[in-house]
Design a protein that fits this description.
Shape: globular
CATH class of one domain: Alpha Beta
Largest sheet: 9 strands, mixed
Number of helices: 10
Radius of gyration: 21 Å
Oligomer: single chain
Distance between the termini: 35 Å
CATH topology of one domain: FAD/NAD(P)-binding domain
Structural class: alpha/beta
């Protein structure tokens, strides 16, 4: 029997495994990918400064940052609403750090994590698809597609694909929206500024990526289909009208695609000898880029709970209850913050247009509030 089985060796599961590596624990990580398999295509992740610190602690940030074009710093975040007053700017210099966050290549991050796992004492088993986790008082049992089973004192589900865990359910709230994502070029290169623009139809974001921006545009499903059908010139014109004067000079677009938006959350996040983290615990709307960072904080906090546990209490109800309590404030506030932004800024009701503009203006004008807000964005709620 193993001490810990981690289901999913993607960024969150791999971060957890690396954080507990080298401490004398018998850890096995299961991943559906074949050995050496690269992610299909590439996408980007928005990492906070706090997430960078976690990746530094598990020994992968230096190699990731050394890959040409893999990391683009975000030094400033410009937040505004269309059709109304109020805006704020968050600046890394105000907090004594070089960047508030980073836009990172998913493929490059996974490569760095895979290389670190290969150097560690973690037993990574590729081409293994877990299907269910069941817990009993002495151990958890993980069933796999090939009919094999693995037993461990603690099972951690970090795959984000919905591996069933006995005693944990998943609740889904469909926003009735899609996110249109694409690469956008301007008539000038990015300068480290990310833009978050709230419109009556939903939030929009531009994230600096090397020589261009990554666009995230919230739309109704039929609007998303219509935007995909437009030619480049018509699309850029529509984007310019919707984004307003905050950013101008759109010149080229590539790689348009859409995906549906929903809030999914596990309840509870712990069960008998089992725990879910990352997307297996919560999948958030991409507004404000909180989801992945929340998942990395799950991994880091669970690693600390594992290393703090005396051997006989690993995976015990008391240990898992302490972890759940440890994550409660950050997790619930992250979900509420993201969900609340959609309702507060995702409609054009006249009754809230003025208050939300005032909130943005006050956030920009009151330094202690602005610092507290920025720290929550960088590190979560502690």
């Amino acid at each position: 029997m193993h001490d810990i089985v981690v289901i999913g060796a993607g960024p969150v599961g791999a971060t957890l495994a690396l954080a507990i590596a080298g401490h004398g624990l018998d850890v096995v990580a299961l991943d559906i990918r074949a050995a050496g398999e690269k992610p299909r295509g590439d996408r980007t992740l928005a990492l906070s400064h706090g997430s960078r610190l976690i990746l530094e602690r598990v020994g992968v940030w230096r190699s990731l940052a050394g890959v040409e074009g893999a990391v683009t710093p975000i030094t400033t975040i410009d937040i505004s609403q269309a059709g109304g007053f109020g805006m704020t700017r968050l600046d890394a210099a105000d907090h004594g750090i070089e960047a508030l966050g980073y836009v990172v290549s998913y493929a490059a991050l996974q490569d760095a994590l895979d290389a670190a796992l290969a150097r560690s004492d973690i037993d990574v088993r590729f081409a293994t698809e877990a299907t269910a986790v069941a817990g009993t008082a002495p151990h958890a049992t993980v069933s796999s597609r090939d009919a094999s089973t693995i037993r461990a004192r603690l099972a951690v589900v970090a795959d984000g694909t919905g591996t069933a865990v006995e005693g944990i359910s998943r609740n889904r709230h469909d926003y009735g929206q899609v996110a249109l994502i694409a690469s956008i070029w301007l008539d000038r290169p990015p300068s480290g500024i990310a833009y978050e623009r709230f419109t009556s139809e939903g939030p929009m974001a531009l994230l600096p990526e090397r020589d261009h921006f990554g666009l995230v545009w919230t739309l109704k499903p039929h609007e998303g289909d219509a935007m995909l059908a437009l030619d480049e010139r018509a699309f850029l014109s529509a984007l310019s009208r919707r984004f307003g004067t905050r950013v101008t000079g759109f010149t080229r677009i590539a790689s348009r695609r859409v995906f549906p938006l929903a809030l999914e959350r596990a309840s509870p996040i712990v069960s008998t000898r089992a725990v879910v983290i990352g997307n297996a615990a919560q999948q958030l709307h991409p507004v404000a880029g909180q989801g992945f960072n929340l998942g990395l904080r799950d991994a880091w906090a669970l690693a600390q709970s594992i290393l703090d546990a005396v051997p006989d209490t690993l995976g015990s109800p008391a240990m898992l209850a302490r972890y759940a309590e440890r994550r409660s404030a950050d997790r619930e506030s992250g979900i509420a913050f993201t969900h609340g932004l959609i309702h507060a800024f995702g409609n054009d009701h006249a009754a809230i247009a003025w208050p939300r503009g005032l909130a943005l203006a006050l956030l920009d004008a009151v330094p202690p509030v602005k610092r507290a807000f920025t720290r929550a964005m960088l590190f979560g709620i502690r």
